[in-house]
Specification:
By secondary structure, the chain is an alpha+beta fold. The chain has one domain. Helix content is 24%, strand content 35%. A 5-stranded antiparallel β-sheet has the order 2-1-3-4-5, covered by helices on one side.
Length: 82
């Protein structure tokens, strides 16, 4: 799977939902990000919460949601978010 470019991520951040994921596996917890939808604001938030990842919604594919990891540009296939 390809990775998203910084320009693509910035565009998605401006217009799509963002979730903050803390932890992994069964202990993972996701919360909707309600701050400003700019890369500067989002990266500032992540800088103060070191164990978190930000995922921005990209699109639906094959019955699941495709999200982009803001820091790495990697796509993640999520069945659902709480």
């Amino acid at each position: 799977m390809t990775t998203a470019t910084p320009d693509q991520i910035a565009r998605l951040v401006r217009i799509n939902p963002i979730v903050i994921v803390n932890g992994s596996g069964d202990a993972a917890r996701s919360l909707r990000y309600r701050g400003k939808h700019t890369m500067t604001a989002l990266m500032g938030f992540l800088g103060t919460h070191r164990d978190t990842r930000a995922l921005v919604y990209s699109h639906n594919t094959e019955g699941s949601q495709l999200w982009v990891d803001v820091q790495t540009g990697n796509f993640r296939n999520l069945q659902r978010l709480h």
